[in-house]
Design a protein that fits this description.
Blueprint (H helix, E strand, L loop, with lengths): L1 E9 L11 H4 L5 E5 L7 H13 L3 E5 L17 H21 L4 E5 L2 H9 L1 H14 L4 E5 L3 H8 L3 E7 L23 H14 L1 E3 L5 E3 L4 E3 L7 H14 L2 E3 L2 H4 L2
Parallel strand pairs: 1-2, 1-9, 1-10, 2-3, 3-4, 4-5, 5-6, 6-9
Antiparallel strand pairs: 7-8
Helix pairs in contact: 3-5, 4-5, 5-6, 7-8
């Protein structure tokens, strides 16, 4: 019996700038990671995205980042652990305000972009993120890259942790995501995405960008909302999961 949560980063538009196809993706995912305003999203986008998720019975999670609106949160930043903790806490509070006003629960937290990637490798950054979540609400599910420092930090703080895997991103031989600056780091070949997803879920294996087989376990799998083929990828993934007897469940039903 195999089961997986299907998540996507959405709510990443800003003002008049439209990013992603949230209205289409929402029909296929079980968990939504919603931008909290510091890399994307604004109060109106945050509120509207929560309503979209609520209307489709999709679990809502916060997607905090470094304060990097100009760089979409994908630029490495040098901040103190205190600054990181408080920036995350600030964003959790912002999204929670809209959740509460719309009578929906905040279920999980997943860091975005450079914050996610740096925290995956640096235990001090990971602890800062996990500590913010612990202080805000220790019942939230803490999502992090499988086999990373984020999972280690979450477990250290006694949080429910969810190991995340990626269908449309390449890994290096150590199990970290390959930089988007490197050619081939983002996968848009639907057949390859499906093949990799099935191998990770059923066999707990993935092929790195240099051909090495790595061990990997996942509770939730991500398709990036800003991928131009995101809607098609998610649709075909769901069909492939059904053929391979993989149940698609909300994160809260997988992590208990």
């Amino acid at each position: 019996m195999f089961a997986i949560d299907l998540n996507s980063d959405i709510g990443e538009s800003f003002g008049v700038y439209k990013i992603g196809s949230d209205e289409k993706l929402i029909n296929y995912i079980t968990s939504a990671n919603i931008a909290c305003g510091l890399h994307a999203g604004d109060p109106i986008v945050m509120n509207n995205t929560i309503l979209i998720a609520k209307n489709h019975n999709v679990s809502i999670g916060a997607h905090p980042s470094y304060p990097d609106l100009q760089g979409f949160g994908r630029r490495n930043m040098i901040l103190s652990v205190e600054e990181i903790e408080y920036f995350v806490l600030y964003q959790l509070g912002a999204l929670y305000a809209f959740c509460r006003s719309n009578n929906v629960e905040l279920k999980h937290v997943k860091a975005h972009g450079a914050l996610y990637n740096m925290a995956s490798k640096d235990i001090n950054i990971a602890i800062a993120v996990a500590n913010a979540v612990k202080k805000f609400d220790d019942k939230l599910i803490f999502v992090g890259l499988s086999n990373s420092k984020l999972i280690e930090a979450g477990e250290r703080f006694g949080l429910k942790t969810a190991r995340e895997i990626f269908a449309d991103r390449m890994y290096d031989e150590n199990g970290f995501l390959v930089s988007r600056k490197i050619s081939g780091s983002v996968i848009d070949n639907i057949d390859l995405v499906i093949e990799r997803a099935i191998n990770m879920i059923k066999y707990q294996k993935a092929t790195s960008i240099n051909g090495k087989i790595i061990n990997i376990k996942g509770d939730t799998i991500c398709i990036h909302g800003d991928n131009p083929k995101a809607k098609d990828l998610v649709e075909y993934l769901r069909e492939a999961f059904k053929r391979n007897n993989i149940d698609i469940l909300p994160l809260s039903e997988i992590i208990k």
